[in-house]
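Entry:
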Amino acid sequence: MQVREPSDHRGRSVVGAHLVLIRNGAVLLGKRHANSAFAPSTWHLPAGHREQGESAMACVIREAEEETGLTIAESDLSLVHTLDLLDPGSPIPRIQLFFTASRWSGEPAVLEPDRCTEWRWWPLTALPYTAMGWT
């Protein structure tokens, strides 16, 4: 069955895929580079945007490997949260999908130092938050 797509892209959203890895009561977060276009110098999950023809699961697996060197099988992923975001700074709506992995191989390493300066396991009871936001 062929789906007829509209000729324009009205209503299209940017799709982001985020990885929530928890080990021994701590979550993996990366410190974004100070020159990052989004949320510079803040802590964030491994994440990225889906590429043309790519599933969200394939995206999060690719991003995890590119950013951290971790290897994850699609069968080990579970969707845990969805966020429909209308950012006041952008006319393009965004859908953010958050996945967790039941297992993975490797240890996180900084593989894109121009985007992320370090990876750290943060205890869920002591996340990097201040009154001004994520730091």
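The mean pLDDT is 89.
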